[in-house]
């Protein structure tokens, strides 16, 4: 229990006065509303609904409290190295009613999972990773959080960084294309003016430039995204011969990543092949349930292309970005009219015509990008894994027209492949107005402006966007299958586990307004004709279901599994 006799209110935030930590040198500016005043004012000006904030160096929890308290901010993750500050930060959050900050004790670094020395000083704000600039009280060993892993996991739109010199070299080799703003305190007294300028140059090369109105003499600087990043070589997406629109026979290429998804592949593939998806490429890594053998059989049957994830050859742990970058160079992409990146738990559900992808393209009119809003299906009170079609077992989902608070949802995007495509990404592409403006639509065929204007955005206000198509998403399935997914780790980034927040926000079982009537008959007929008639394929499918069930049985013996299961059953079940 953290002990303190007084609460200081500074910049509208309550902070517990712990004299051993908040010394008079810090107490005075706190009482005068000057402690971190510049950063606080900048964040209140810059942050907006939908932002995801990554704070490196949480201090006493002031800035994370401000960030999390701004209406509409989607996520705040705070990394703090000083273990003595963790109880104080948690108490700051409690005093201010902040419950949506993910606080982690460790060091942001270029490597992930290493043990790194950290030097604690009497003044907590001067503690750092280097021992030489000032005397230190003691040395501790802390886990490192790789900055590349954090970026890939969180996809932050805003980074707040005050890590007492640890910023030197931190951002050199990391992809910051999702970030639109950085609030950073520089420490030239630690590494010199030349290194300070180098840090700013590195960030500028990544499209993040000093904002107008910054004070040159200030150590705290705001950087904002303005410039366009370098484009992918045009040879990756050559100019296509003109085809008269509307296309009655569009060639559509889906690329996706999978890991241990064997029981769920055939339904997903039959659905998308039946609605007119012509080419499917699946990248896999580290499968243990026979997913890779099942996909090999499907490749032998001409149903898809199965490739090892290219990240395996380079030692990269960012599996999905590596696969999508490689997908630019595939023949299937070069020869396709449209491209779509979706996961095996996502179904493109066309709601007009015969439910085919060609009906969607014709109804929407000519477009460069059409972003489809996700619609999350909950666990539907299903505890146990039972083989079957997800659409039958989990019909209930979140409402299609939520209130303001839950209006923002993620998207996946159908992209017309042309010279306007700069880069294909998981949720949306990066596009350029090459020759004519980009035509970007939502799932009702209406003009959509926010995604093209802001490359850090992966979602939008979903209200009114389900008129032509929805992306029916089954992220949980049955509770036991969800827990396998949690303990398995992520297919996107190695070592990342799905959190309890993931369950809480996606277990929506409100309505069943989204049906699969238009495509269901064709999908079942396709499955019966192509898959159920192949004994080798069905034996591999049955083996993957058995492996999934065995994995559940093994996990049931682990206390952590039992604890998570009990928590989920008690969480609005």
Helix content: 25-40%
Number of DSSP helical runs: 20
CATH architecture of the largest domain: Alpha-Beta Complex
Q: Average the pLDDT over all residues and give the rounded result.
A: 90
Shape: globular
Report the CATH C-level class of the largest domain.
Answer: Alpha Beta
Distance between the termini: 32 Å
| Fraction in beta strands | 15-25%
Given as residue ranges, the uncertain stretches (5+ residues, pLDDT < 50) are 227-236, 490-497
Backbone structural class: alpha/beta
Major sheet characteristics = 10 strands, mixed
Total E-strand runs: 24
C-alpha Rg (nearest Å): 25 Å
CATH fold type of the largest domain: Spore Coat Polysaccharide Biosynthesis Protein SpsA, Chain A
Task: Domain count, please report it.
Answer: 2
Give structural notes.
The protein is of the alpha/beta class and 573 residues long. It has two domains: 6-225, Vaccinia Virus protein VP39 (Rossmann fold), CATH 3.40.50.150; 247-524, Spore Coat Polysaccharide Biosynthesis Protein SpsA, Chain A (Alpha-Beta Complex), CATH 3.90.550. Helices cover 31% and strands 21% of the residues. The chain has 20 helices and 24 strands. Strands 13, 14, 15, 16, 17, 18, 19, 22, 23 and 24 form a ten-stranded mixed β-sheet that branches. The chain has a seven-stranded mixed β-sheet with strand order 5-4-3-9-10-12-11, sandwiched between helices. α8 packs across α18 (517-531) and α9 (291-300) packs antiparallel against α19 (535-555). The longest helix is centred in the C-terminal third of the chain and has 21 residues, at 535-555. It is globular, with a radius of gyration of 25 Å. Mean pLDDT is 90; it is low at 227-236 and 490-497.
